[in-house]
Structures are given as C-alpha cells and as structure tokens.
Amino acid sequence: MGRVSRRGALLAALAAAGDVHGDGATALSAPERKSRPRDSVDPRLLVVGSGRLGGLVLQQLISGPTPPRLALAGRDRAAMEAIARSAEASASITGRYIEIQTIEADLLDAGSIAEALRRFRPTLIFNSTTLQTPSSLLGALPPALRSRIYDVGVGFAPWASFQLPLLHNLMCAARAECPAALVVNAAFPDGTNAALARRGLAPAVGIGNIHVLHAFMVKACARMLDCPEGDLQLTLVAHHVHAYHWPRAEAADAPCSLNLLRNGRDVSETIERSALVAATARATQRPSGDASQYIVAASAAAVLSALTSGRPRLMHLPGPLGLEGGYPVSVSQREVALALPGSVSRSEARELMLQAQRFDGIDSIDDRGDIRLTEAAREVLRSVLGIEAAAVTFENALEFGAEFRAKLAELGTKAHRGA
Fold it and tell me: How far apart are CA 226 and CA 410, in angstroms?
C-alpha cells in the first residue's frame, strides 16, 4: 500500500468522517440458533449517526404504533438537534408527544461512545455510520472507470475500511457498558458483522441488502408466473453482491439458495436463474445515491420495530449472528433466530455465502477478522489506484481508507478536468 502516515490517515478520516449512513465454521460469538434471551424491559433505542439514514429511521419509528424511548448520538450537535426536533414536531402533528434525547459522541473516540452508552443505557442500538459512502466518491468518475472499481469480483470489500473502525469501537463500548443490548448494523453487515464475530463482537443482525432484494425478487417471480405476490413464499440465502448486482442484471452465477412456493407448492424448478436475474432487474426501480436511503431506512425501521415488539416476524436480513451474507430469520422482541427451510442446512447455506463473497472482493475473513481481498480486487487497487494491499484489517483500516479515498478523489478530479 502507498505510504500514508497513521497520523495523516487519522486526521483525514476525522475531517471526512460523517455519520451518514450505513470464515471459519466455528468462529461465531453468538449461540448457533439465536441471540441471547433477555428479560422483558421497556425498550430504549439509541440511533448512532446524525446523517441522512439516521434521520430517516427516526422519522419512520415515530410513526409506529408504540415508539420506544429514543435517543440520537453523533458528532454534529446542530445536525442532531435538527433531526430530533423535526421528528418530535412531526410526531406532535399526528397527536403523538415524544422526546428524543441527543448525545454528542464520536465513534472514532472509544471513550466518547462509551460515555454516551452509560448516559442512555440502551437495550437496542442502531449503527448508521460510515466514514465514507461509495456514491460520493464514485459519482465523480466516468462510468467505465466507476464500473471497473466496483465490478463483480472487486466489489465492496475495500469499502469496509470506512466502517470497521467505527463499528469496532461501538461494539467494544456496547459489550463493556450495556452487554445485554442488541446492536443492529447498517454498515456492510454481510462482511463487517462476520469480521467482528471473529473477535467476539458480532452485532445481532444487519439491515438492507437481502431484505431489499427479497422484496424485488418477489415482484419479479410474480410477474414471471403471472400471479399475485401474495400467492408466493420466497425463501432466500443471498449476499450483498446479489443485492447490488442482480438489480443491474449482473453476477447471475453468484451462488445463492432459493426456494419458491406458490400456494404451498414448490415451484422453484420452474424459475431459471438467468431469467430471474433479468426479471429482477426489470422489476427493480431502485434510485441510487441518497435517494436509495428511503428504502434502506424502511428496512431498518421494520427490523427495529420487530425487535421491540412481541410478535415474531419472518424477514431476510444480512449478517445475523455473525454470519457472512444474508439469511431468512425470525425476528421478535430482542431475539434473532435463523429460519432456514428444510431443504438447506446452516452449513450448506454458509458455504454458499463463503463462495458468494468472493464476487464482492472478499477472498476470506480470517480468525483475526482480517478481510482478505481477492486477487481481482487486489489487481484493480494496484493497477487503477496504485495501492498495494492484501487485506483490510482492524489495524490498517484508517490508513487504507484514507489512501483509498485520496486516490479516488484524485481520479475524480482528473476526470473532471479532462471532461
């Protein structure tokens, strides 16, 4: 990797950081079947991150039937106050009177987030933070160059450098200050949850990705079979790579598991994979960039609401219990359990996701939680950006991310000048 001092990397990360959002068969920190059972208590939800996603999630939560006690933590006091007071006013308009506590905290400062947890004592935490979103950097690049950097086989793995430092500090603080609290992660949960699991710090579950893909695929299957969506029951094991590329009619051969019932009858064999990917692309009208956050926020609000209610809900979510990729799960009051169909075992489903993650630039996640890059990802980093790196690790993430961001910004500037 090119030379970037750790002090320079940290300063660059601090300057650019925004609260914007979101291997090994025995490496899981959580019990195999479900999250730890907990005594019934009044839910207290802390949303971490005062960016667009955190604000949208709060707006959706206050419109629910019984919002939990809410708090918002972030670096930007003005942004937090604007989000919280707007949400309170929105609730008042509909006859609900709630108060949202705001707490200044910086996830790059482990002591800062620990203090925020001590003050609020949450039972549920939602992480919506990242140091960098892809759209803000890739949007300045020509389409051909943008697709090469984010191509099949290169994918999202390098971007984990913008998420691991923040999520690691949050999970360490949560384990120390409120060990019974469940953490829901929006920042690349297909990969980061598994990396944290190697260190005994796995969030309970993620949001988005397979959750959103599943909704689009049900629409696609209904159109292919010419039947109402309500007639179908789709059970899916899929990775972030599917959620990103299938709506673009790409990566049709990335491994997954799909079971489709129509009025209780298995019709999986009637759906051909490439045709389904094409149909999913046609059924998907998902906006890109900031506009896509409305869909991600809907996923987050649904998961958080299920975790604060007593009624189990079947969902498809990424990173449950420290696993790679996404799975069908049962979500109920402060519990997450796998809900795989009888046709696929846990070990079979996980093996599919270990294969699928290579399409997203992840060769493996080792026992230290290091995200080892595929040769395809390494070659693009080397040839396009001049970065030599074999892995994104907890130790090099800030430095790697600072160099990755700088090189992409430099490419964007050159492309703009040459236009």
Answer: 49
